[in-house]
Amino acid sequence: MNAFKFLIEIAFDLFLMVVLLRFWLQLAKADFYNPLSQFVIKATSPLVNPLRKIIPGFGGFDLASLVLAFIIAFAKISTVMLLFFNGWDPVNALVGGVITLFKEALNLVFWVLIIRAILSWVSQGHNPIEAVFHQLTEPMLRPIRKILPPLGGLDLSILVLIVALQFLQILFMDLFR
User: Which of the 8 DSSP states describes residue 67?
Assistant: First the structure.
């Protein structure tokens, strides 16, 4: 049963990350014509566009994408409850949906930072995915670089941000236990 639970959770989590990535791309005003951006837009448009008719954006935030992300997180928790815990509790599903949404948002930032770091080591030139990851993460890394002194060409700002993200995730999980 754990294998099936894993497959269900990973399917929900991957799509949730794509929807959160859409929200983040629009928030960061990343290059819309980048192949990665185009993939994210095309993968999420069938569900986001109908929601946009009901839920307009507000102050530069794509609320329809954010609502869809919560719906996916809520559906994940509800599905797992129904299939593996023989019952469904709406309050636990709502709280679990919020926790899942926050956790996956932190995981998304973590993986984008890891991939950006790896690409910076192996990339031979301009890589379109690396360019989008730079647009997404640079606003978070710039303040850290202002505080950290340069260390002979080593950029430790990504490492500092990853540690901060892991701290936030552990703190958040401790608060909700």
Answer: H
Reported as a single tens digit per residue, the pLDDT across 60-114 is 788 999 999 999 999 999 999 998 888 888 898 999 999 999 999 999 999 999 9
Predicted confidence (pLDDT) per residue in 105-115, tens digit: 999 999 999 99
The candidate with the shortest Cα–Cα distance to 6, out of 78, 71, 80, 73, is 80
Do residues 140 and 108 lie in contact, with contact meaning Cβ atoms separated by under 8 Å?
Answer: no
- Using the structure block, give the residue that is written with the tokens 């819309």: 32
Question: Per the structure block, which two tokens stand in for 85?
Answer: 């815990």
State the DSSP H helix or E strand holding residue 138, giving kind and residue range, or none if neither: helix 128-147
Rounded CA gap, 137 and 31, in Å? 13
DSSP H helical segments within 29-127, as ranges?
35-54, 63-84, 90-122
- Rounded distance between C-alpha atoms, residue 33 and residue 46, angstroms: 19
